[in-house]
Amino acid sequence: MEVLSGLGLLAVVWGLYTAWTRWRQKEILPRLVEKSVLITGCDTGFGNLLARRLDQLGLRVFAGCLTEAGVAELRQACSERLQPIQMDVSSSDSVQQAFLVVKDSVGSKGLCGLVNNAGILGPLGSVEWPSIADYQAVLNVNLLGLIDVTKTFLPLLKKSRGRVVNVASAAGRTAVPFQGPYTVSKYGVEGFSDILRRGMRCFGITVHVIEPGKFSTGITVKETIRRSIYGCFESLSPETKEEYGLEYVEEIREGFSEGGDDDPIAVVMAMEHALCAAHPKSRYVVGQGTRYAWVPISWLPTDLGDYFARVVAPWMTPVPAACKGRK
Predict the structure, then answer these.
(1) What is the spatial distance between Cα 216 and Cα 227, in angstroms, rounded to a whole number?
(2) What is the CATH number of the domain that holds 207?
């Protein structure tokens, strides 16, 4: 009886705490129109949608785009407050040039927010398929580029006691076997974000991580996925190709196309909250599959987590032709 009473009291306390937290998180920062934000990866996807959304809210947005076409599209679609900047996060020279543009514009006010959104998916396939060059290409954008941008703009963030929003992934919490370079990069983003949050607290800079599942963006277009998988497979030696077989390749393609959350606006709203809420969360888990499957799996002991990953998503671990029939 005492145990039940204790559990009941715990449930009440937890319910009150949850209600209070949700109410508190609805409060928005005052004078948003006075704040400046830099977003990377604004050509398409989450970054493009967020740039448009913050422009509508009246914030001053510096939208980093890889291409001239991305710059032109945003310049035409948004107000004069939004300033598109051609910016390649994998190039330190490009990052430095963007820094000078932003620094000259914001002056002593500094930068209130930095959203590290730029990212690429990279090659897909078994862990031994991608080359070291493939890993390097993905890391240069998703992790090293993110670190470079953050370190470069920290002086401006210190001036305003600003916020850093890093886009990680569900793949940064639970490993996806056929997304080797991408998964490694997102685990790195998680680690760097934890280091940054703890190290910058004394300067008043807060760090917030967005952890989306699979959403419909430019990097998840089916044709792009198909080219990535088959391109990686065709680069293998004849012996390795025979070892895996075309059926393995097709299972990866079909598995990657299954499930997922279609509307990316949920991720954009999480980013907006991280930037504009008076009391933002440190982590935003976005997507039903991520919230109720992949994150809980990451909490389990390793062997148990591996087992449940195979049960929940058998398409994640297709069997190579050479291994079929083995016990």
Answers:
(1) 17
(2) 3.40.50.720
